[in-house]
Design brief:
The protein is mainly α. It is built from 13 helices and no strands. Helix 2 crosses helix 7 and helix 6 packs antiparallel against helix 7. The mean pLDDT is 83.
Amino acid sequence: MNALPPVVMNLRMKFIGALLWGEFMKFRLDPTSILRERARMAARFLQAHFAEVGQPYLREIVGPFVQRHLDPKISYEVDPARCKDAALRAQNMVALTNASEELFTLITSADSLERMPYPIRASAALVMECARHMPEAREWALPIVGGLIILKFFNPAVITPIDVGILPADTKLEPFRRSLLLLSKVLQGISNGVLFGEKEEYLTGMNPFIEAHIPPMRRFLAAVGEGATPPPDFPTALRPGQPSLFALSHMHRIICALDPVLQRYVTNPEAHARDHH
């Protein structure tokens, strides 16, 4: 997949900034709702944006992990309703813990952070900047970044690797979907800082693991957001009199439609000069 021309990416990041600021303004009195509604434009656009710019990265970081765990000999099932053998459930809990540790380390490693695409980190930086300008949401900055980076970026690669494009379309995924789901639940628990309770009591055995990994996860999320710098006039540039969300969206669609022409001119300046001579 070719990288978007800078003019397109810059416009897209402005659009994302406007979407995020709109979310923070709408839910300023209830920050836990920011980016939670999947049907809202901000959540839908960000997920599509992440899938586009993050696919090569996810294929390298998460792809091999998922591929290794598509093994019929491996089971992470710890629900008594699905696995009646108590000894086997204990064995599976150990396997789930080890696999969760492996996945956590892959995602939060210095190498992963260094290779993470700039547009992903810039989106996290915009979230943190929105929170900085809104006192009601400041303490929720890292949980919101976690929802953005873990729930909307990494977890889809674990649960639906074919849809995300990191595994071939003919991969036999169905027998292993439950194991991948359990791994994603643990990862999300660490990101949210929420322990398992009555709703999923069979996973409470993972709570000590989650508690131990919350501090390093928070450090990782902070580092992701610190990896890019928002425009110096953000979010004041989004005040009345500036381009609306609709205008930014319309401009983005037009420029994306012109992408082949832009790519030609970016990679071949002589063609641009020749066409306009």
